[in-house]
Amino acid sequence: MQAGNDIAAMGTAERARTDAGIDPRYYQEGERWEKSVYRSVAASRGVWRTVAVLLAAALIAMVGLLWATLPLRTFDVVVLEVDRTTGYVEASRPLREAGNLTQNEAVTRANIVRFLRARETYDPKSLRDNFDLASLYSTGKAADDLANTFSGANPNNPVKLYGADTIVSVAVKSIIFLNEQTAAVRFSTTRTSRGASTETRHWVANVRFRYTSEPMRNDWRFDNPLGFQVTEYRRDQETVITGESQ
């Protein structure tokens, strides 16, 4: 037992002599190395966290951009109307609050149709009313042309051509806006006379128009509340005359 204690005491003394012989800078260098390794690992983790956050943000941004740029796939039903006589094809458009056919455009279309029907319709019973309405919607060259058409000195005056036994009705087919103040109108006129065959003609008219805020009589304002005016009107025949028995 005493021998064992002596051996242990000798080992402790030997380690003490060994530790006393080691340079203290060895431990300092080891401590600095450990701290540098720790700092390197911590910095590396911070960099990877930053990279991960940036990649996640970029991925979210790409998904959002993709969602915003790719339109949803929808299917709209479009009605195509084909003119049996001319073969002209037109797509019918719905009236939407912010869609294809705006409310302002719809109002202008309605005004053009009212003018054209009053201008081209011939009915002895409503001749004066149609002429007054067409005059209300006309100004400038269009008004002069209308006055010359129904002038007593004009040999082609509709009153002289058709008389009291003929009616010419108008059917508007389509309206296409060429610009903000010009429209192309496709329409047909059907002449019906007593004791004669029905005659149908197809036309294309160019209508230049504007809206004016000039003062207007109240009774005129009832028929033309927005001050719609046609400045130029010209029609050309689209196809040859077609006749069909009454």
TrEMBL record:
Keywords: Membrane, Transmembrane, Transmembrane helix. GO terms for biological process: protein secretion by the type IV secretion system. The keyword Transmembrane helix applies. Gene3D superfamilies: VirB8 protein (3.10.450.230). The keyword Signal does not apply. CDD domains: VirB8. Pfam families: VirB8. It is a single-pass membrane protein. One of its GO terms (cellular component) is plasma membrane. It is found in: Cell membrane. It comes from the Bacteria. The chain crosses the membrane at residues 47-70. Residues 30-238 form the Bacterial virulence protein VirB8 domain. InterPro entries: NTF2-like_dom_sf, VirB8, VirB8/PtlE. Belongs to the virB8 family. This is Type IV secretion system protein virB8. It comes from Rhizobium rhizogenes.
